[in-house]
Specification:
heterodimer; A: alpha/beta; ten-stranded mixed beta sheet; globular; B: alpha/beta; six-stranded mixed beta sheet; four-stranded antiparallel beta sheet; 28% strand
Chain lengths: 481, 251
């Protein structure tokens, strides 16, 4: 082993800067999972009957399922009866306006760089802030409502627009879909709801910021975005959690529906606590995300930058049902120390002339394990379907791993499916070249990795792209000398 | 400027440098010649701080201080520049971004503020003209898809922006046609000054027609076996490297 590879291993881990805990009074229900707990959650949220029914059906189905073991990740069995399924900061009184948000919570989000103060937002981004199980604030609701756009917490949407929830909930990810989707459907507490009416181009980025705070709590949020005919929306999500020694579960479900000529751009910067450098603690991020290109010429584009979590299991997918619809997946996944990620996408071509693009960049450092798992499926009726996939892996050091599992199922002869994959070690030559120009080791690694991810970063909204680059450098700082 | 005393180095257990002695004063241009495998490139890489090479003996003083104690990036910030024989491609990183990072790293090391964006642009545009490089190369990824000649030109361009005190040129002439060779040589000659020194590693005498050295050294089996002025290079060209082998063998 050369000495610069040694120094890659040597550098001590940089601290996770979002690892603080907010000291705030909680209202939570006892740990454990049974029908009473589910009824309790539903009652706290004063839900309509159909939603309780949905939850109970999901729970009963979940009981019949086994935790999936096919991903290439390794972690101890989760005891679902030890988890607290609902925890919310105790409201002091009913909020009349954003000014009345608990100062502790406001300070927490300020500290995370997410201002829920509308005046402080310089650019056009509306934020829904979710703290443990509930949404604590949503900005710019009024301005958006003027154009008929609904952007609110999921709970509010259930109260204010039950007909829309009833119409779309579970239509893209049914509760029978998989183990974690069933669990989420039974116990989900909050999340965001966006509805963009026909012909409206959403004038600002909509964003949800998820924060897990309470110990022993799982976060099960549900996001639903509906874009009606010829509408457009760009949605961002970010997330962080305190530094804790025990693992915490985050099992979300995200459903997107795009009708004729509609476009949804969904970007994620995932920065859950990854655990410490010895692999202790961290979030289990088991998420089901799927978009339905229901109408013709519709387009759904997923961009994700995954740097956090101890274990990630996530496949943002597109069902290309409408003719000429387009699905895109751009991903950067970083695993450092003992992090594990099994992530990728599914592109299911149903309609004619449907197109999909997959660009995946996996970076492994430390003892991180990074797998790309993707399925491109072309159904019988999907004449002239096209797919292009490119999966590149980069290894930093020699104790990490990169794996690629591409699956292709084509049932229509006119399908054209291309797959390219590369694996490279971060080059000693490249590092030396940059260092010889005066750039230190960490900056050199960060520059090479950022270059490697460029195709994905350019898909992110401007502000997020800069954030993502910084985050990437911080995530890798522990890995290099 | 540079004082190399009995320098020995190995890579993967193969001893390559067997006691190099060389003194380079400010303003001097030294050419190191020698057959393939004689250790020319190794010498350049060891001086630049490549970690795959293990120094097994001797010492190197640079501006009076122990050079071998410094990390590669510290050597660079101290004004040592290596023009690579095989410039490396960095996909996705633009030439201008990379070069700006290099300029700023050096400035930071010297306790100076970062360079102003406009000032930087002005600087690089002037320097690019000098080496006859198209401005479009600023926005292309570092060396990616560059031809051999473009890569070498890019090295000389970087050198002229970074203005080193000691420049090591590792076979900068290899793979260049005569026009490119002239441009590269002019770029180097423009930088020659009483404060700046060059060590030019080359296999062929041809480059030395354009970059005229003050001293020529012949490397053989990791040792300097013959030193002289530019006439030595011509003699070498005429008689071939076998002449050295014979004369060394005879001695």
């Amino acid at each position: 082993m050369t000495s610069s590879t040694e120094s890659i291993h040597e550098l001590s881990n940089r601290e996770y800067k979002y690892g603080f805990v907010t000291d705030i009074e909680n209202e939570s229900i006892p740990p454990g999972l049974n029908e009473d707990i589910i009824r309790k959650i539903s009652a706290i949220k004063k839900e309509p009957e159909f939603l309780l029914e949905f939850r109970l059906k999901a729970y009963r189905h979940w009981l019949t399922l086994q935790e999936p073991r096919w991903p290439k990740v390794d972690y101890p069995k989760v005891d679902f009866n030890e988890i607290v399924y609902y925890s919310a900061p105790k409201p002091k009184k009913k909020l009349e306006s954003l000014d009345e948000v608990d100062p502790e919570l406001r300070a927490t989000f300020d500290k995370l760089g997410i201002s829920i103060d509308e005046q402080k937002r310089i650019s056009g981004v509306a934020v829904d802030a979710v703290f443990d199980s509930v949404s604590v604030a949503t900005t710019f609701k009024k301005e958006l409502a003027e154009q008929g756009i609904i952007f609110s917490s999921f709970s509010e949407a259930v109260q204010d627009h039950p007909e829309l929830i009833k119409k779309y909930l579970g239509t893209v990810v049914p509760y029978t879909d998989n183990f974690y989707a069933a669990l989420n459907s039974a116990v989900f507490s909050d999340g965001s709801f966006c509805f963009i009416p026909k012909g409206v181009r959403c004038p600002m980025e909509l964003s949800t910021y998820f924060r897990i705070n309470a110990a022993g709590t799982g976060q099960f949020e549900r996001t639903l975005i509906v874009a009606e005919e010829s509408s457009y929306v760009s949605y961002l999500e970010g997330c962080t959690a305190p530094q804790r020694d025990e693992n915490q579960l985050h099992a979300a479900v995200v459903e997107l529906v795009a009708l004729d000529d509609a476009q949804i751009k969904y970007s994620t910067v995932q920065n859950w606590y990854p655990g410490d450098k010895d692999g202790k603690g961290g979030i289990y991020n088991f998420v089901t995300k799927r978009g339905l290109c229901k109408g013709h010429n519709s387009k759904i584009s997923w961009t994700q930058v995954e740097t956090g979590s101890a274990v990630t299991w996530k496949y943002p997918s597109c069902i290309l049902q409408g003719d000429n619809s387009i699905g895109e997946f751009y991903s950067v996944a970083v695993t450092n120390n003992y992090q594990q990620a099994d992530t990728g996408t599914k592109m299911v071509h149903v309609g004619k002339n449907t197109k999909s693009t997959i660009i995946s960049k996996g970076i492994s450092a430390g003892r991180g394990q990074n797998s790309y798992r993707g399925l491109v499926k072309v159904l019988k009726g999907a004449t002239n379907a096209r797919n292009f996939s490119q999966c590149d892996s980069m290894l930093i050091g020699d104790r990490c791993g990169a794996h690629t599992f591409p699956y292709i199922e084509a049932m229509n002869k006119t399908a054209k499916v291309e797959h390219e994959a590369t694996t490279s070690k971060i080059g000693e030559d490249q590092l030396f070249y940059l260092r010889q120009r005066g750039i230190d080791m960490e900056d050199a690694i960060s520059m090479i990795v950022n270059g490697f991810c460029k195709e994905v970063f350019r898909e992110l909204p401007m502000e997020f792209a800069i954030e993502a680059q910084k985050l990437l450098s911080v995530s890798l700082e522990g890995s290099v000398g | 400027m540079l004082e190399i005393k009995n320098l020995q180095a190995k890579v993967e257990d193969i001893q390559i440098l067997n006691g190099i002695n060389l003194t380079v004063n400010p303003g001097e241009v030294h050419a190191i010649m020698g057959p393939n495998g004689s250790g020319k490139s190794t010498l350049a890489q060891v001086l630049a701080g490549r970690e795959e090479y293990e120094v097994t003996g001797g010492e190197v003083l640079y501006k009076g201080n122990d050079l071998l104690e410094l990390e590669a990036e510290e050597r660079a910030c101290e004004g040592l520049f290596l023009a690579f024989q095989y410039p490396v491609e960095i996909p996705g990183v633009s030439n201008s971004y990379f070069l700006k990072a290099a300029v700023n790293a050096k400035r930071k090391y010297n306790g100076e503020d970062e360079i102003d964006a406009m000032e930087f642009l002005k600087l690089v545009k002037t320097k690019m003209k000098e080496v006859e490089m198209d401005e479009k190369f600023l926005h292309r990824a570092v060396n990616e898809g560059f031809s051999g000649g473009e890569k070498k030109r890019n090295e000389v361009f970087q050198m002229s922006v970074l203005e080193p005190q000691l420049a090591l040129l590792d076979e900068t002439d290899s793979g260049l046609d005569i026009d490119a060779l002239k441009v590269v040589a002019e770029g180097v000659n423009r930088l020659r000054s009483p404060e700046r020194s060059f060590v030019v590693v080359t296999h062929y005498q041809r480059l030395l027609d354009y970059i005229v050295p003050d001293f020529v050294h012949v490397l053989h089996k990791g040792k300097i076996v013959k030193s002289g002025d530019k006439e030595l290079a011509l003699e070498l060209e005429a008689k071939g490297y076998s002449w050295i082998e014979e004369s060394v063998g005879a001695a």
